What does this fold into?
Amino acid sequence: MTDADAPGAGLVTESDIADLLERVAQDLDPAVGLIVAKAEQMSRRMRLRRRAWIAAGCGLAIAAAAGVGLAGISLARPPLTPAVAAGSHGAAGSHGAAGSQGTAGRGTASAAGWHPPGRAGGKSRGPLTAVSPAALMTRQQMLVTLRRLLPAGGILSDPQTSTGPGSLEIDYNDGKGAVDLRISVMPTAAYSEQVVDCPRPLWTDEGPRPAFALPVSCTRRMLADGSIERDAVMYADGSGFYGYDIYDRRPAGITVFIQVGNGTDHTVPQVDRARPPGSMAEWRAVAENAAWRL
It folds into this structure.
């Protein structure tokens, strides 16, 4: 009797089925490592694009600088107010037209509420003057200056190394949750004229505004020393993320820009509170301080 005539010859056994399923599973097994690596790469690219408000959003040709190397710095100085801010270069003078509260549904915002310098309402104003990195404050100099101007008891952490000279992005926690804080100190020639103008109509929210959030607003004013200042409460993006937005354009040819959010802004916005920390007046005092320089 041949093997073909043997009992069970030609039948598929459980062992054969198990081997077949294992080979099929191996063929279908996805390259998990490759997928994870690609996802991380995309996340980094998305994050860098969000950070590009400093390096490219202004049209500034500036080089990257070394990281600050900060894990968490406690602020030990007393808070500054507009009345006692040392080096503040001017009190509020004549006021421009104050912005009214934005109303959702009056239109669609053209970009995220967290917009870069050189943009107004999400519309780019085009390429601007190139700036030499040697003319700008380093991140370390900006960090030291910021520590002197913020209230005591807060924590600065997680400085972003993707910013160039003249720019600082860092998390600020006043004890009620971390928020994204961005500062840019540049020659005024690096900005378009429109950055200190309030859009009409004002921005509209892209997503639900947090309960008890500040209303959208924008005010343009002339200070006693001739500086033009624009402060705004920005509209919320789809995550409910918004913040203070201040430009201080000085006669000496320097513009200071500050954004303070109601949460962190890593990869995707994380809303931590209904309102940004501090008041608009306190952050205006920080922006107006003479310590910011070229």
Notes: Residues 39-288 form one domain.
